[in-house]
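User: I'm new to structure prediction. If I give you an amino acid sequence, what do you actually give back? Let's try with this one:
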Amino acid sequence: MNWKELTDSKSIAKLEAIGNKHVEEIVAKYSELCMPEKIIIFDDSKEDMEKVRKLAVEKKEEMPLTIKGHTIHYDGYYDQGRDAANTKILLKKGVHISKKLVTGEREECLEEVYKILEGIMKGKEMFVRFYCLGPQKSKFSLCALQITDSAYVSHSEDILYRQGYEEFKRLNGGKNFFYFIHSAGELNEDGTSKNVDKRRIYIDLEGNRVYTVNNQYAGNSVGLKKLALRLAIKKSHEEDWLCEHMFVLGAQRPGKGRTTYFSGAFPSACGKTSTAMIPGQKIIGDDIAYIRIGDDGTAYAVNVEQGIFGIIEDVNANDDPLIYHTLTTPRELIFSNILTNNGKPYWLGMKSETPLEGRNHSGQWSVGKKDAAGKEIALAHKNARYTMRIKELPNADSKIDDPNGVPISGIIYGGRDSDTSPPVVESLGWAHGVFIGAAVESETTAAKVGGVLGTRTHDPMANLDFLVVPLGTYIKNHLRFGENLSLPPKIFATNYFLKEEGNYLNDKVDKKVWLYWMEGRIHGEYKAINTPIGLIPYYEDLKEIYRESFGKDFSKEAYEKLFSIRVHKLVERLDRIEAIYAQEQSIPQAFKHQLSQQHHRLEEAKKQYGKETISPFDF
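Assistant: Good question. You get back a string of structure tokens that encode the predicted 3D arrangement of the chain. For your 619 residues, that looks like this:
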């Protein structure tokens, strides 16, 4: 059946006004394959976006909560995180990228997913949406076409991304865009995806497209997020810019009268969103950045998105006051996979009294409920989320939509360990900083299906799950990017999770102190201690920042525990990193040199000071 027979004259006029035969061919192809009952074409108008919101509620994909603008969405019990095992990069026979990547033979996978898609939208509506990845009218930005049968996915993308209908017109009929085909598939009675055993997320690099079926969790279904990230990484490496899993924030220290922009990459649950949302600072974005070299030789970045899809666990009024305020006041906001009771939301770690029953990701819930495997079900999922626009926040930066981006003066790589790394370290230079980023480790989190909590994993630049180029090529391009900058950003590493006898050695809010020290280093306001792993703060400088920021003292004892160099643990980590990279091909010699030099510096320090744990006061 011709696609035009499945829609109305308004939708036909909207699609034809774009003047792009490639878009029309895609709509025609997938309407014939997926067999929807109806097709709706949306433009950038407020009326169309409001229509999507209403559809999400009418179809019971979302349910209104007590606070105005708030809704709750539930994914299936077994559809609560990124499905790494069934997310495949499609490659032609004989093509290899990395042993760490899950790949599939392109023609076989396309044949499989086409069979799954056949008739998958029977009885449903097909939504055709147009988005812009990055600010509108910007050299940074890319066009994205989304086809889905989920009003929730469509509504989420309206919050998370800028509208792109007019951007598609500016393509002048060209095919320089990504496109995404999604279906939740057959649904259970509660509206969740039924056939999760046939969940597939296939990324076709050659076709600049992604297929994602039999799922609803936004990390799998929202094509413009981590799925588009893969396509953009490929494009960036072909065009000599960077596509990174990074936030962008503007640091504003009281009394300084300046804004210093940082980008930062943190694996899941390592403090990325809470760092981007440090009180008193400005936020550009919390997840994905495109970085290009400006005409002045400086690195400039834009936020690909305009919204936040954040992990809600442990968000509370004390530790994350800005985020908590947004979650408890009126605005357009979607919660997912938390507990609701009488129209009110509750989540893990919110540090307030929670009810003993309600509805959550398992259906009707009460304390003690167990799943089919006999495991007790918590009141909310550890990977439960909230979706909201950044501009709703009081700390949204005025340059969030600047088509020229913002100049990046510092890059932060955040890992997670309880016994190895100091809270903040500055690299010895760009190449050493790239090494630090490529050696990031963290504990497995609930954001990945099948992960075992507490397992330490290697996640270079917090981007490993999304790489579609060989790891060696990725590192080489980072090194080259820095060489082409006239003033490379300083690179830092952070770790907020050091423990002693099971207790954290610092508070969550202390990350503001580490940020202010980094900001001061960029402007030459602080000297630093040279250690085998990089530059660390002097005690007196941190004591001053603590007093200025929180009006409290910072003891020498606390400083020593946090910033001691734990040689044995650091060497163990280097050995793990060396073993991992030994399995990869074409790793740049510059990276190997940095690894060797850091190993040598640690061993020399151990000989010089005669102990495994070296106090920062010794250096």
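You can read the tokens as a compact description of the fold. Here is one thing that stands out. Residues 203 and 231 are 8 Å apart (CA to CA).
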